[in-house]
Design brief:
The chain is about 45% helix and about 20% strand. It has about 210 residues and is an alpha/beta fold. The structure holds guanosine-5'-monophosphate (5GP). Guanosine-5'-monophosphate binds near residues 82, 83 and 102.
Amino acid sequence: MMDKGVLTIISGFSGVGKGTLVAKLMEKYDNYALSVSATTRGMREGEEHGKSYFFMNVFEFEDKIQKNQFLEYAKYVNNYYGTPKQYVEDMLERGKDVLLEIEIQGARQVKKMMPEAVSIFVMPPDAQTLRERLTERNTEAEEVINERLRRATVEAEGIEEYDYVLVNDSLQESMEKLHSIIQSSHHQSYRNIDFIKKIREDVKIFTEGE
Ligand code: 5GP
């Protein structure tokens, strides 16, 4: 039972703290694998190639699109972002619960292809907190911050499409909630069809033998 990993999509407004939440989760539990995305956006201070993202230029990115190497990809605020397919497939096969931290267009693509994926939208406790977090981060120009806030309005329209919403008020509590959402997904009946069939057959044999 429960041998394949659960694919989890985590979205949320820019600045909502998804990254920190996921980092905390990975730190505490070892059954998770975080997919590192490819992007054409510039590297921010403190980011590392291959760890935060695989940073590349538009030509490299488009070449990978051509070669069908992305599970999904999207344009977000003038840059490409995409999930490398191979890693996700390998990790799920190995039974790891794979985390994708992606925006809504990508989330829609994944859900369409893999409806068994669990999707979670991380919300701020209120809108003011979101603006403050985004401004305090201080890694982006005013113009980019405004563009990201505009984008948040667009993304807000699609929240109901997600399976779950998670309010990120207390980091520790939200992380544990995230963990329990994902772990309970393992028990969904449709993920355990082979196991169910086996028990059903075995029970039948018992009754036939009587
Ligand atoms: P940031 O530039 O702040 O790192 O990311 C901007 C947005 O792109 C975030 O909402 C993030 O979740 C999303 N994102 C990161 N990687 C991917 C990806 O591989 N695919 C898609 N569709 N979105 C991504």
